[in-house]
Design goal:
single chain
Length: about 350
């Protein structure tokens, strides 16, 4: 880290120089399309490979993210990369000194929040515009003054969130993170706990099966609480399914091909509940907009909201449909074929 007495400008300049000196070109961390895990790797060094791989993925998206609307997938891709990095820190973190990883986790959370704010608004705005363009039955409502005011409000929030994201990426804290993380992933043994001389599992082939089954169990545990489960519970299930998927994908190079079936089943749950969460976010944002409009109308001209209410009904209907059809995806995930596939997945280890 840098001298705390330096100005922010000087700290940022030094951090950027450190990034350059660290050789921060993605190809340094991505010589192939895979992290390069081996089953006899130590968990610390396997984690370093996986972290370097997704670190490069995150960096590859930074320039496109800065270009904005010209690269609409970049926000999503960079957000996914930060999620993968945070997941990898969770998977492999027990094999490094906690104090070494804590600053990385903190900065990644900050970047993820900024990316998430932009992405959430990007998704809800795009869906609303699509509905307005294709839904003839409510065309009048979806093009009234109130609905257009909603779209304008979401655009303003999106612009503000984008500005916040760029400020985050321009900060000296982020520059320090890039430099420090580059050093971490390119120096074998750095911050790793001493495990080789202890009778404790520390090789990938010893640890990965348990980690995978723990995350599988974390998903299956929701079986007992799914009946009439609240949205918060379903969102937590989505996070658990994502944890299983990311863990399997972190080790996929050394697993049996049956891993693809388990990953696909977990992804189906994640995607279904992701759509549900998107609808929930949209409805919550519309509730906020209506509340603000009512407050404004006390001192200004009343803002028509018929179009907002019409679209809210559409998204509420989407939520209900997603809730009604979730059982199909859950049944597929809990099918005996998936349990057998999971057993075969780790059998090679």
């Amino acid at each position: 880290m840098f001298d705390s007495n330096l100005s922010d400008e000087d700290r940022e300049k030094l951090a950027r120089l450190a990034v350059q000196e660290a050789g921060m070109h993605p190809t340094l961390f991505l010589p192939s399309d895979k992290p390069g895990l081996q089953s006899d790797d130590s968990m610390a060094e396997a984690g370093r490979k996986v972290l370097a791989y997704y670190f490069a993925r995150m960096q590859e998206q930074e320039a496109p993210v800065r270009e904005g609307q010209q690269n609409k997938d970049a926000i999503h891709d960079m957000r996914v990369a930060t999620r993968r990095l945070r997941s990898a820190l969770d998977i492999f973190g027990g094999f490094y000194r906690t104090s070494a990883l804590r600053p990385f986790a903190k900065e990644l959370r900050k970047v993820a929040r900024s990316l998430g704010a932009v992405r959430d608004l990007e998704v809800v705005r795009a869906k609303a515009e699509d509905h307005a363009a294709t839904s003839s039955s409510v065309e009048a409502d979806l093009n009234d003054q109130g609905f257009q005011a909603l779209l304008k409000n979401w655009q303003e929030q999106f612009d503000a969130a984008t500005t916040d994201l760029i400020e985050t990426l321009d900060s000296h804290q982020y520059a320090e993170f890039l430099a420090d993380f580059a050093q971490f992933v390119t120096n074998p043994g750095k911050a790793a706990l001493e495990m080789a001389d202890k009778a404790q599992p520390h090789l990938v082939c010893h640890v990965a099966p348990l980690l995978i089954y723990e995350r599988y169990e974390a998903v299956r545990a929701y079986e007992t609480v799914l009946d009439n489960a609240p949205l918060d519970t379903l969102h937590a299930l989505r996070i658990a399914a994502k944890g299983l998927r990311y863990t399997l994908e972190a080790f996929t190079e050394i697993l049996q091909p049956e891993a693809k079936s388990v990953i696909s089943a977990a992804k189906a749950i994640q995607d279904h509940l992701g759509e549900l969460q998107d609808a929930r976010v949209a409805v919550d944002l519309m509730h906020d907009f209506i509340a603000a409009s009512r407050e404004t109308s006390k001192t200004h001209q009343h803002q028509p909201i018929a179009g907002v209410l019409s679209y809210m009904a559409i998204r509420e209907s989407d939520k209900q449909e997603l809730l009604n059809t979730f059982a199909q995806g859950w049944e597929a995930f809990t099918h005996p074929d998936i349990r057998r596939a999971l057993a075969l997945t780790v059998s090679v280890l």
